């Protein structure tokens, strides 16, 4: 009697070792716990070494059929069901430790670069739309000469701009304002999915050309 095995894979999995087991890239469930444990420890692929010629990452596209074939070698009668992706990517990344000084230097550089760039963008925008002239017109309309002397509108504008940026990016001083992902995290997730889809499509096209040849 064949045993049913359920396997679920994500589209992108990171590993830090060359010998990739099924349990490293997928969730496995089976009523027979011994069989489940055995399947988790089946070798799926042995990746090429990284770190040579300064290459710190190895990316490989695999198919669920690769998992089925690996399981079938040990359990020919197993009924393998896919609950995840049909094709997925395994990233073998060589862990590289940075000194705290270097990390701090990189953070300081990125922070300074972002601050200067943002400041320039805001100043250029305000100059394009003549923000100062608009404030002067508002002061004239309401006859608020005293408010103009203390630059009340400018202060409110600056505070509102800062609050708007903080609320929009849902992040301030290392603290997340809510449990929702930030806009940058959403865009990065979209970008990573697009990259994964492109790599998978390229692999499929390459395999089809190979079969035709």
Automatic annotation (TrEMBL):
Residues in Stage V sporulation protein AA domain copies: 3-93
- Keyword Transmembrane helix recorded: yes
Presence of the UniProt keyword Transmembrane helix in the record:
yes
Q: Where are the transmembrane segments?
A: 105-125, 155-172
Question: Which InterPro entries does this UniProt record tie to the protein?
Answer: SporV_AA, SporV_AA_N_sf
Q: Which domain of life is it from?
A: Bacteria
Keywords, sorted A to Z: Membrane, Transmembrane, Transmembrane helix
Matching entries from Pfam families are given as: SporV_AA (PF12164)
Task: Output this protein's name.
Answer: Stage V sporulation protein AA
Q: Which organism is it from?
A: Lachnospira hominis (ex Liu et al. 2021)
């Amino acid at each position: 009697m064949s045993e049913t095995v359920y396997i679920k894979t994500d589209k992108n999995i990171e590993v830090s070792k060359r010998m990739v087991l099924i349990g490293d890239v997928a969730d496995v469930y089976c009523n027979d716990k011994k069989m489940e444990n055995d399947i988790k420890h089946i070798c799926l692929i042995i990746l090429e070494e990284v770190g040579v010629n300064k290459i710190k990452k190895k990316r490989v596209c695999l198919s669920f059929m690769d998992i089925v074939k690996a399981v079938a070698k040990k359990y020919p009668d197993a009924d393998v069901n896919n609950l995840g992706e049909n094709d997925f990517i395994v990233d073998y990344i060589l862990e590289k430790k940075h000194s705290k000084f270097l990390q701090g230097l990189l953070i300081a550089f990125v922070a300074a670069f972002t601050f200067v760039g943002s400041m320039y963008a805001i100043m250029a925008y305000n100059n394009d739309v003549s923000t100062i002239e608009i404030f002067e017109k508002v002061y004239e309309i309401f006859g608020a000469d005293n408010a103009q002397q203390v630059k009340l509108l400018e202060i409110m504008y600056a505070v509102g701009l800062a609050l708007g940026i903080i609320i929009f990016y849902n992040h301030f001083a290392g603290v997340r304002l809510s449990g929702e992902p930030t806009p940058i995290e959403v865009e990065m997730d979209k970008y990573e999915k697009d990259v994964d889809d492109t790599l998978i499509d390229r692999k499929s096209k390459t395999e089809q050309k190979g079969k035709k040849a």
